């Protein structure tokens, strides 16, 4: 009898589509800084938020909107526009931790005018990338892997204080690691930006398609060039402590529809 039930279970499993067994969509977490994975009804082919296009992907022939929720989003109802009827989602309460850091280089706490001007130029350069929306070549949402080894610090979304002064919430995930450790591409994409930035240090930005951008900061070395196609697992640089840091680590950020979201939601 037991063997009979095992055969039934095995047969049923074999009938499940491969796409369902290995679903690639990120985790649904409807909070500020989270992601809403929304199944779309028939006929909806376009979704937007505040005039910005929202990524659409398919799993097992079912289309989904994959929407990045702003860190500034308030608890309550949030509305997305479509080519048919609007979609409303509920943003749940979520409490992020606080982080107090002592930065020895005071320029990184209270920059002078020249440094502020430099930061403004670099911020515009990066924001132009975040707000871009390139068509993806993939038919299924890409599978993401960790860009480097190390224990996650759970730092995304933390309210930060540098030398006692409050700053914007942390928009990425910090992974403490030794200088020189390899940093790899978590998924296929196009290198759309590299540079040495005032706060971020040596930085690489990768476009994965449809407004999905990954960013890697504080590198000791950059191994790729702008315009280079990169595949998952390919080395893009080495861990370092360039820019505003208190120790060597990788800052891994993910931007979706020009909103910074928790990178951990892309990992299985």
UniProtKB/TrEMBL annotation:
Residues 1-23 form the signal peptide. This is Murein DD-endopeptidase MepM. Keywords: Signal. Residues 33-85 form the Peptidase family M23 N-terminal domain. InterPro entries: Cell_wall_metabolism_enzyme (IPR050570), Dup_hybrid_motif (IPR011055), M23ase_b-sheet_dom (IPR016047), Peptidase_M23_N (IPR040487). GO terms for molecular function: metalloendopeptidase activity. Residues 169-263 form the M23ase beta-sheet core domain. The keyword Signal applies.
């Amino acid at each position: 009898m037991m063997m009979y039930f095992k055969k039934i279970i095995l047969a049923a499993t074999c009938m499940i589509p491969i796409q369902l067994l290995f679903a690639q969509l990120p985790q649904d977490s409807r909070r500020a800084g989270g992601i809403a994975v929304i199944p779309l009804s028939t006929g909806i082919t376009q979704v937007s938020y505040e005039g910005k296009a929202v990524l659409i992907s398919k799993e097992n022939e079912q289309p989904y909107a994959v929407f990045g929720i702003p860190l500034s989003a308030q608890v309550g109802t949030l509305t997305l526009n479509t080519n048919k009827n609007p979609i409303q989602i509920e943003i749940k309460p979520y409490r992020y931790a606080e982080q107090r850091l002592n930065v020895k280089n005071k320029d990184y706490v209270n920059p002078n005018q020249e440094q502020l001007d430099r930061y403004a130029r670099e911020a515009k350069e990066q924001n132009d990338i975040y707000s871009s929306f390139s068509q993806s070549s993939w038919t299924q949402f890409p599978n993401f892997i960790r860009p480097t080894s190390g224990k996650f610090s759970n730092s995304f979304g933390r309210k930060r204080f540098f030398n006692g002064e409050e700053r914007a919430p942390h928009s990425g995930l910090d992974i403490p690691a030794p200088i020189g450790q390899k940093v790899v591409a978590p998924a296929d994409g196009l290198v759309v930006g590299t540079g040495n930035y005032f706060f971020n240090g040596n930085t690489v930005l990768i476009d994965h398609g449809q407004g999905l951008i990954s960013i890697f900061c504080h590198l000791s070395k950059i191994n790729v060039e702008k315009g280079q196609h990169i595949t998952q697992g390919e080395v893009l640089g080495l861990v370092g402590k360039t820019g505003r840091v208190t120790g060597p680590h990788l800052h891994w950020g993910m931007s979706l529809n020009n909103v910074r979201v928790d990178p951990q939601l892309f990992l299985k």
